[in-house]
Amino acid sequence: MADRSEADRLKEETWIQRLIRRPEIGSFIVMVVIIVALAIASDGKAFNALGLKNNIKIIAQYGIIAMGAAMLMIAGEFDLSIGSMIGFAGMSMALMLKWGLPFGLGEATPFMAFIITLAMTLTLGWFIGTIVVRSGLSSFIVTLAFLFFLRGTTEVAFRLINQSTQVSGLPDYKENSWFANILGGEVFGWFYDAWYWIGQRAIDGMEFPARLPGETINMLAALNINRRLEQWVTGFDARFMWFLIIAAGAYFILSRTQLGNWIYATGDDKEAARANGVPVNRVKVGLFMFTAFCATMFAACQVFDTNTSDAAKGNLMELFAIAIAVVGGTLMTGGFGSAIGVVFGAITVGLVANAVFFIPEIDGAWFRVFLGSILLAAVFANERIRKRITGGI
Amino acid sequence: MAEPYLRVENLVKQFGPFTALGGVDLEVYPGEVHALLGDNGAGKSTLIKTLAGVHQPTSGQIYIEGKPVNFRSPRDASAAGIGTVYQDLALNQLMSVTRNFFMGRELKGPMGTLKMDEMNEIAHDEMLKIGIDFSDPTQAVGTMSGGQRQTLAIARAIHFGAKVLILDEPTSALGQKQQMGVLKTIKRVRARGDIAIIFITHNEIHSRLVGDRYTFLALGKVIGAGTSQEINNEEMRRLMAGGAEMGDLEKELAAI
Fold first, then answer.
1. How far apart are CA B48 and CA B64, in angstroms?
2. pTM, entire model
3. Residue B19 DSSP SS3
4. What is the pLDDT of residues A81-138, one digit of tens each?
5. Is the N or C terminus of chain A more exposed, i.e. has fewer CB atoms within 10 Å?
C-alpha cells in the first residue's frame, strides 16, 4: 500500500522518546533545577517544616488561578480580568461578613457570603464569555475592559459601604464555622504529625542545652520540631487541598472526558470543531466561568485565612496566571497544553517568588527578572513542541 | 438500475438578483461515483452546499430514497445520511487521529469518560477499511500527509453514517502520488456498494479514472450528463471547457 510507507516514515519511538515529547517535559526539568538550586542556596531551609508550608501556600495560590487561565487558553481565549475578579470576590465576601447581607437580609454566615459571591462572579464570568463569543471580539480587549471595570467597582464599593478600601479585624470564622475552616484553615495535618513523629524518633535520647545553637535549631526545623521541642507546624493551608482538587479535576477533564476533547478542539480550530458539532461557544463561556470560579476560590481562601481584605488584592495575578500557564507548556494560540505542566509551572514560579524569604541576600526583584526570562524561553520551547507535533506546519 | 439514493429536481438557488443554480437535475446511485465537473463559478459549490444543508434552495426539490426532504441546517443533512468532506477537511492539527475522528461525537463511558481504547480501535479499523494502515492513532493529525488526512475525513464521514459522500475537490492541493492515493480510497468506498459518492473535481483525468456517471455544470446549469459509456473523451473535454468546441478555442488562441 502506497500510504503505508508514508505512515512508516514516522519513526517508532521508545518510551524515553515519548517521554521527551510530552509537553510537560520542559517545565518539569526547569522545576527540578529550581527545587535543587533553592534547596542548596537556602541551606535546606526552603524545605523544612515551615518552609515547605509557606512554599506550598504560594504555589497553591498561583496554581489555582493558573489552572483556570490554562484551561481557557487551551480553548483559545485569554482572561485578563482574573486579578480584578479576585479583588472583587474578596471585597464582596469581606463586606458581607462585616456589614451583613445586602438588602438588610441580616448577618452573613461565611457560607452565605461565599455562595452569594460565587453566584455573582460566575454570572460575571458568564457575561464576559457571552460578550466574547457573541461579539467575536478578541478576549484580550473584552477582559481588559473588565480588568478596569471590576477593579474600579471593587474600590468604589469599598469606599461607599466601608469608607475605607480595606476590611480588617474580622472575627476568626475558622474557629466556629466548618465552612470557613475548609477554605482558610489547615489541611493534611497527618502529614506534619507523621513528620513530627519521625522527628521525635530521630532526636530520641539526645540531650539539648537550654539555649539552642543555630545549627541545632535548623536541624530541629527540618524535623518539624520547634525550639521548645514541641511540634512546630501542624498542617498545610487549606488552599493546598483546593489546588489539588482543581488540578486533578482539570487533568481528568482534559485527558479523559468528552468535554476535554471539546476544549482542545475549540482552541485548535474552532471552525473545524463547529463543523463536527462541538458546541464551541458553550465551551468558551463555561471556561470563562471556570476562571471566575478559580479567582473566587483564591479570594475565599485568602479572606478566611487572614480575616482581612483590601481593594488591591489579586493585582497583576491575571498576568502571573497566564505566565505560569505558558511556562507549564500551554500554547498561546490554543489547542494544546496540560494540567500537569501547569502544576510544574506553578511550583517553579511559586518557589522563585518565595526564594527571597529563604535567601535574604538576594533582591526580591530578581523574581521578575527570572519570570520574564523563563517566560520567553518557555514561549520558544512551546513553539518548538508545536512544530514538532504538527510536523513543522 | 436501482433507485437513486439522492435525486435533485430542477434545483434553483438565487442570491438576491444572482442566479447561482438555474434548475439543476442530479441523480446519485449507491455504489457509484458521480463526478461533478465544471469550471470555477459553474455552481458546484452552491450545489453541494445546498445538498449539505448550508443553503436552502429557492425552488426545486431534493429527494432521498424517493422521499422529498428539506434541510434547514447541516445537521439535518447529516442526519439524512449526507456526509460532506470539505476542502479544509474540518480537522484539528494538534489533536490525535482518534480525537479528530470522534470530535464532537465521542464515545462515552460512565461519568462522561472517554472510551479511548475502543475509539482508537475504531479509528484504526475504519481507516484500514479504506486503505490506510495507521499504526498509531494517537499521533497528531499535523504529522499526516494531505492524502492521509483526506482518508481520515472520509473514514469519519462513513463511520458516522454517510450514505452520500460529497467530496469537495479532494485531489486538488495534493502531490501526484497522494492524488492517486485518494482515488484509490474513492474506489474502495465505491466497492462497498452501499455508498453514493459525489466527486467534485476540475481534473478530467481523475474523473475518468473513477467516475461512473458525470454531470457537467456551467453558469449554474447542467450542460451535459451521462454515464461513462455515454460520454467519450472528446465530448468530455468539450463539456469541461464549458461547452465550447476545443477546435474553436484553438482558433481563438491562434488568432491572438
1. 15
2. 0.87
3. strand
4. 999 999 999 999 999 999 888 887 788 899 999 999 999 999 999 999 999 999 999 9
5. C
